[in-house]
Amino acid sequence: MTPPEAPATDRDGRSAGSAPAVSVCPPASPAPRIAVLRVRADFLRAASAQRLALPGFLLQARQRGAAEAPPADIIRIGFTCSKKIGNAVARNRAKRRLREVARLGLPELGLPGWDYVLVGRPEATASRPFSELQSDFAKAIRDIHAGRSLKPRPPQPGQKGRRRGK
């Protein structure tokens, strides 16, 4: 008795003549690319532009110029927390919460060609519910783009970095 023949298969292990199991649908609108701010000068430029204070964080935002290095289709975001938040554990927790808020809301609400900086406040750590942080973030982005923000800080003459010696 001879063994039965196995059905013919292609390289991917599918039987020859079968259609792929993946359905093809038209691609949705591409999500904007998001990059993280890492250079101090970028944080300082954002700090001198529009800002909006909310209970969980301070949002600083600015629209980049056409001549700046990153392409105009990228949204950039930065996160920072001072020692007023607490020890390193509290600061890292606050930044993790702010990162997650931005990850969930920025692709829909942020505009390409803008830089955003989220500055954590003491309420961002454990006392502020995450859903309220999300709604605050959505409100802040909408208000910034509608032109409702605090006055920009005036430039500090002669101050390039941290003050030393006093």
TrEMBL record:
InterPro entries: Ribosomal_Su5_D2-typ_SF (IPR020568), Ribsml_uS5_D2-typ_fold_subgr (IPR014721), RNase_P (IPR000100), RNase_P_CS (IPR020539). It comes from the Bacteria. PANTHER family: RIBONUCLEASE P PROTEIN COMPONENT. It comes from Rhodobacter maris. This is Ribonuclease P protein component. RNaseP catalyzes the removal of the 5'-leader sequence from pre-tRNA to produce the mature 5'-terminus. It can also cleave other RNA substrates such as 4.5S RNA. The protein component plays an auxiliary but essential role in vivo by binding to the 5'-leader sequence and broadening the substrate specificity of the ribozyme. Pfam families: Ribonuclease_P. The gene is rnpA. It catalyses: Endonucleolytic cleavage of RNA, removing 5'-extranucleotides from tRNA precursor. Its EC number is 3.1.26.5. Residues 15-26 have a biased composition (Low complexity). Keywords: Endonuclease, Hydrolase, Nuclease, RNA-binding, tRNA processing. The keyword Cell membrane does not apply. One of its GO terms (biological process) is tRNA 5'-leader removal. GO terms for cellular component: ribonuclease P complex.
